[in-house]
Amino acid sequence: MLLEGDHGSFFGDRLQSGVTSLNIPTDLISEKLVVDLNDKQTASHLRFQRSLRGGKKIDTERNLMANYDGFFRTLVVRVSDNQGHTPTFPAYQISNHVFGNGLTMAQQYRNCSNNKLKFTKANGGADIKRGVIDITVSANLGSAYDSIVCVNAADDALAYYDIGDTHVYTMYICPPEVEFGIAAGVGDMGGYKSWYSDEFGSSPYVQMHEMGHNLMFFHSGEKEQGHLEYGDPTGVMGGMYVKDPQWGRMCFNAAKTFTTGWYADHHASITPEETSSYIGNLVDVNAASNGDIRVEDDVVVQVKGSGEKTLYFMLHRLEGITRDMKPDYIDTHANRVNIVRQTYAGGIASFGVDHLTSDEEYVHYDWAGTGNALHIKVCSIAENASAGGAKVLVYIDGGDIDPTCEDDPVTELPSLIPPQNACIDSPLKMFLPNGDQKGCAWVAANNTNVRCMDAGVASHCPATCGVCIECIDSVKRFATKDEIKSCFWVGNKESERSRRCNMEGVSATCRSTCDSCS
């Protein structure tokens, strides 16, 4: 992400290394991942706060994409103080709420991930019981002005307990007196910690949402009007939930599901201006969970176009592992093909575009600058997962063939192999937060996965960091022969775009802006 403007005036003396963090609402971030610090309205919405300390050392053997696949031991910390402030539920109940076999965070992640992502109880220390440790901190949590006080006090206290070092993620359950504002919990984006306000720590939905932030899931908005980053009622990251420990059988929307690769054998990725049409049978995650899925069925479809935000769609059913939804949205979102838009996979918040039932279609005019309209049409939706899926057409006007609902689905689907140049590292040096200029060779030389976790590095060095899913620009500033530039600069003046893309190394850095991935 690029912060443009007068950095000195904006930060002043508030910027302290390792102490200050900056919370940026996603609606203030442009499509090119740029934040204008000179905009007074923008500056008024940015919030400084103390950072976490004592974070778990990142496992240098983990690839970024490995967040979504494997066994991860998780420690739950029940935090009390010596003033009598303590969480409502005892440790043994919290263990059941997180790791039990019913509706819990651990079980629902296993269900949604096609049995690929498994959070299991930490067991590496003598003081851990059933994945939970009960601790008492010296700080008075009744006067905690920020939820981070609870976490930092807990980390200080944990130094005196035997917790081992085998766990990856840590969840903190704080007493009800701790100030969380309007939040039910907080997840450290891309990190390993999440913390919860008392009973919300026993809500499967809230647990999944905050752990989702650890997995680099941003929020899921409903419609892009107003850039509201919440509101998608079909998935965990939409913030539309009921405070009930028996509520939360939900998974993730199409953009996030595609990013994880949980159903990679049932993905389709199409570029309509290059591929004349798509005719497919779309099934929901329940079909995969129940074994009612065929080789030719798709779970999620990606639609790409030059200069367009990527579209993703999948079928939602109000049954099985996705049977919970706030009642006000059932008629408009459940049992439909839901389309979302996202700048790139794993990036900032996704937004709902349309929600289609049988015989409805979404039309996007002048798709990819072709002058022709893109159509996503739902021909039919079977009654339930066991009965089948949804027949869907994708095409643009003016193609060789305009498919109809009478046509048979195509069994040979477009390959999901990333565009050739999407996996090319930038040859230009990028600027790091400390002012250093480093290239992708430096990223690859040592502690690669630690360096890839730094903001923006993976977009600059996708091949080295193993994130070649999308054709995306680097979000880092980079050095040309004469000056410091960014991909936002490359594309912000159409008349200069071609010349700028022809500068040495720029097309391999600003891959989307320069359309160099085909």
Describe what is shown at a glance:
The chain has 518 residues and is an alpha/beta fold. β19 and β20 form a beta hairpin.
**Mean pLDDT rating:** 83
* Whole-number tally of structural domains: 4
The fourth-level CATH homologous superfamily of the largest domain is: Collagenase (Catalytic Domain)
Strand content: 15-25%
Biggest beta-sheet profile: 6 strands, mixed
Low-confidence sequence ranges: 54-65, 411-418
Number of helices: 15
Keywords:
15 helices, Collagenase (Catalytic Domain), six-stranded mixed β-sheet, globular, 24 strands, 518 residues, 4 domains, alpha/beta
Structure explained in plain terms:
Helix 4 crosses helix 6 (204-214). Strand 16 and strand 17 form a beta hairpin. Strands 5, 6, 7, 8, 9 and 10 form a six-stranded mixed beta sheet that branches. The model is unreliable at 54-65 and 411-418 (pLDDT under 50). This protein folds into four domains: 2-50, no CATH class; 70-216, 3-Layer(aba) Sandwich (Collagenase (Catalytic Domain)), CATH 3.40.390; 254-396; 420-501, no CATH class. The radius of gyration is 23 Å and the shape is globular. It has 15 helices and 24 strands. The chain has helices at residues 7-11, 40-45, 91-99, 105-112, 147-158, 204-214, 254-260, 285-290, 330-333, 440-445, 448-452, 457-460, 462-465, 487-491, 494-501; strands at residues 2-4, 20-23, 34-36, 47-50, 70-81, 117-121, 132-137, 169-174, 185-187, 193-197, 220-221, 267-270, 277-282, 300-303, 310-315, 337-342, 350-356, 360-364, 374-381, 390-396, 430-431, 437-438, 478-479, 484-485. With 518 residues, it is an alpha/beta fold.
